[in-house]
Design goal:
The structure holds 2 protein chains of 2 kinds. Chain A is mainly β. In chain A, 13% of the residues lie in helices and 39% in strands. In chain A, strand 2 and strand 3 (42-46) form a beta hairpin. Chain B has one domain: Rossmann fold (3-Layer(aba) Sandwich). In chain B, helix 4 (107-113) packs across helix 5. The longest helix of chain B has 20 residues, at 194-213. Chain B is globular, with a radius of gyration of 19 Å. The structure holds thiamine diphosphate, iron/sulfur cluster (3 copies) and magnesium ion (MG). Residues 31-32, 35, 37, 65, 135, 139-140, 226-229 of chain B line the site of one iron/sulfur cluster.
């Protein structure tokens, strides 16, 4: 069976920890780190495997730090 | 820190479905965390990239937090004196009628010091796009009251809330300019959710498209947050905006193809 799977890459050094992406994700994929980046911001990170590559998080990110990938994968 | 949920089999260049456009200069934005200015900048540049008009577009940046827009948008830009962006855009468009010309202005810039320039550019029907970021406050200078500040809304110069009897009423510039025959497309949008951001992108595209038809001003108000000025977290500010700004500044098209949209009373 073919399934759509997604992935995101977050430029954690440019993330300002605003959390707007968290509210935009329908699958709870994103949460904030405990660590901070060199500017002192907690940054967004992936916390599960549920990403579908819908691009919602990337579209609302004010700093444009999220890149989204999507592909069809075949599962048994 | 090591990434726990990376998917190398999906994370390949051919699978990219969204990445920041190269028309955004690769430089950290000067805006506060969560500020809508950054989102509007990016989707504006996406429209320009999709239309492939980056070499034919001239933007005018305002005075306000987005004064530095020319540092972030990788197209030709001019900086106007406070509030004068529509006058400068008029000159540019008349000298170079085949260029796409837009202004990018905050509410203090557009609706306070620049009210005259704004209204007259709209009334003359200049073939420009006006992008108006309304956060109901002077963000840059420390959160002072603007003409757009809501009744009862606190700001650094209305610490007990805007009292309309002494401080006047908020100015709905978008409804006002929609009445003028020189405006062709007038809409109010937001960028705080994915759906709203996608609608704003369509609206900006429409406003740029009508520049080709020479039918007058295309106007997009974006009701936006000012987390720092409102003294809230970005997520709280977006919720506050939905609960307080949208009832007063309702989202949607106000004028399309030169005709006012009838609203059910
Ligand atoms: C002639 C002049 N008067 C006043 C100022 C001070 N000033 C700078 S930005 C600003 C208001 C900006 O508010 P707004 O346009 O709403 O932009 P925001 O920062 O909220 O995006 C003011 C009054 C100035 N720079 N120049
Ligand atoms: S692309 Fe969609 S599913 Fe994936 S993290 Fe972003 S919002 Fe969530
Ligand atoms: S929206 Fe962007 S800047 Fe804000 S927390 Fe998410 S990734 Fe970071
Ligand atoms: S002061 Fe307000 S408008 Fe200016 S960058 Fe910060 S949040 Fe945005
Ligand atoms: Mg403002």
């Amino acid at each position: 069976m073919a399934k759509i799977k997604g992935d995101i890459v977050i430029n954690t050094e440019r993330c300002k920890g605003c959390e707007v992406c968290i509210a935009a994700c329908p699958f709870g994929v994103i949460a904030m780190s405990k660590e901070v980046n060199s500017k002192g911001y907690h940054y967004a990170m992936k916390v599960n495997d549920e990403c579908t590559g819908c691009t919602n998080c990337a579209i609302v990110c004010p700093d444009g730090v999220i890149t989204v990938y999507r592909a069809k994968v075949t599962t048994e | 820190m090591e990434e726990l949920f990376a998917k190398p089999e999906i994370r390949k260049p051919e699978n990219i479905v969204y990445k920041k456009t190269d028309l955004m200069v690769d430089r950290p934005l000067s805006y506060c965390p969560g500020c809508g200015h950054g989102t509007v900048h990016r989707i504006l540049m996406e429209v320009i990239e999709e239309m492939d008009i980056q070499g034919d577009t001239i933007g005018v940046s305002p005075v306000g937090c987005s004064v530095l827009a020319y540092d972030f948008l990788d197209i030709d830009m001019l900086g106007a004196a406070h509030g004068r962006a529509p006058a400068l855009a008029t000159a540019i468009k008349r000298l170079w009628p085949h260029r796409f010309v837009f202004t990018y202005q905050g509410d203090g810039d557009l609706a306070a010091i620049g009210t005259a320039e704004t209204i007259h550019a709209c009334n003359r029907g200049e073939n420009i796009t006006i992008i108006f970021i309304n956060n109901g406050i002077y963000g840059m200078t420390g959160g002072q009251m603007a003409p757009t500040t809501l009744p009862g809304m606190r700001s650094s110069t209305s610490p007990y809330g805007r009292d309309v009897l002494t401080m006047g009423y908020p100015l709905k510039m978008t409804e006002l300019v929609a009445q003028l025959p020189g405006t062709h497309y007038v809409t109010r949008q937001s960028v705080h959710t994915p759906g709203n951001a996608r609608k704003t992108k369509k609206a900006i595209r429409k406003a740029f498209d009508i520049q080709k038809e020479k039918k007058g001003v295309g106007w997009i108000e974006v009701v936006s947050n000012c987390n720092s000025g409102w003294k809230m977290t970005p997520v709280q500010a977006n919720k506050w905006m939905e609960d307080n700004m949208f009832p007063f500044y309702p989202l949607g098209d106000i004028k399309v193809d030169g005709k006012l949209i009838e609203v059910a009373k």
